[in-house]
Amino acid sequence: MTATEDRAEPTGPTGHGVHGYSKQKDEHLKRLRRIEGQIRGLQRMVDEDVYCIDILTQVSAGTKALQAFALSLLEEHLKHCVAAAVEQGGPEADAKVAEATAAIARMLRT
């Protein structure tokens, strides 16, 4: 076994290795189900002709919940995926940093 093979991560279902969020997967799914409930609540509010400002308040809450989830996922990605790539060095490290930077840029545009 080579040193590179020794450091290789186990492969997940997507072929990308184990993801940084894997250890908190159940927590993330629970959080996403709560967010899904918030969005369904918005649908109900529109269906029931609730006052516009009340709906907008709930939209803001849903947006903040999604942003908080995204930040948590980004932090785990940086700690796990990017850190591992940087440790190995080479073009993979540069690619992971560029990928994370692009993800951050997308988050800032929203």
Structure description:
- It contains 4 helices and no strands.
- With 110 residues, it is mainly alpha-helical.
- Helix 2 (25-47) packs antiparallel against helix 3 (52-88) and helix 3 packs antiparallel against helix 4.
- The longest helix is centred in the middle third of the chain and has 37 residues, at 52-88.
- The radius of gyration is 19 Å and the shape is elongated.
Features:
110 residues, 76% helix, disordered N terminus
Nutshell version of this structure?
The protein has 110 residues and is an all-alpha fold. Helices cover 76% and strands 0% of the residues. Helix 2 runs antiparallel to helix 3 (52-88) and helix 3 packs antiparallel against helix 4 (91-109).
Order of helices and strands: HHHH
Q: Give me the count of strands.
A: 0
Percent range for helical residues? over 70%
Structural class: mainly alpha
The global form is: elongated
Q: Strand share of the residues?
A: under 5%
Q: Terminal Cα separation, in Å? A: 45 Å
